[in-house]
Design a protein that fits this description.
mainly alpha
Length: 198
């Protein structure tokens, strides 16, 4: 290509840039906010898509957050592009806090009798075993591993039930905040366009 960069884009720097933006978090947040405001569509449509993206990031379905947000946005006629941006709420820096909040809510509401010490390393191991058992069902039809693992789950049930509450709270808060911000931005832009036309 004529204007193609001579520097090859490497995988590791790109992954690191996602974890820690090169321009810094403050500029990155401003950039994301500007992208949201400039998305085409009504404030309702953009806010709806963003909220579905943010909501899906609160679920324990790691690896398919983007797909969940995009599907819900498409299903309810929200902005799919906004859902991708909203999904950035879930990232390597926020996932530990999201998991902890979901676990605390789920444990206090449904599993208060169980005395289990929360440990991120143990949570990671449990999720890894759980997803491996799901893959065995999908590709080999082996349900035995899943049935045995299901009886020993200590964290995932509480995290899943807790995520139901955080998903609803995140959705409604992000929807009303984003709708207000986008509506204000679009009204201001219309007023400026009207002045220039005069």
């Amino acid at each position: 290509m004529l204007f193609k960069s001579r520097k090859k884009k490497l995988l590791i720097p790109n992954v690191f840039a996602y974890i820690w933006p090169r321009s810094g978090w403050q500029r990155f947040i401003k950039y994301i906010a500007l992208r949201i405001k400039r998305l085409p569509g009504s404030p309702h449509k953009i806010a709806l898509g963003f909220s579905f993206g943010a909501m899906s990031a609160m679920t324990p379905f790691f690896g398919i957050h983007f797909l969940i947000g995009m599907f819900l946005s498409w299903l309810f006629r929200g902005s799919v592009a906004a859902s991708i941006i909203g999904n950035l709420i879930g990232n390597p820096w926020t996932f530990p806090f999201i998991v902890l909040i979901n676990y605390k809510i789920g444990k206090n509401l449904f599993f208060s009798e169980q005395e289990v010490l929360f440990n991120l390393e143990n949570v990671y191991k449990e999720f890894t075993s759980f997803f491996n058992s799901i893959l065995l069902i999908m590709f080999e039809g082996d349900f035995n591993n899943f049935i045995e693992l299901k009886q020993d789950l200590e964290f995932i049930p509480a995290i899943f039930y807790g995520s139901i509450f955080t998903c609803f709270i995140t959705f409604f808060i992000s929807y009303f905040i984003m709708k207000k911000i986008i509506l204000k931005y679009q009204n201001r832009r219309e007023q400026l366009n009207f002045k220039f036309k005069k």
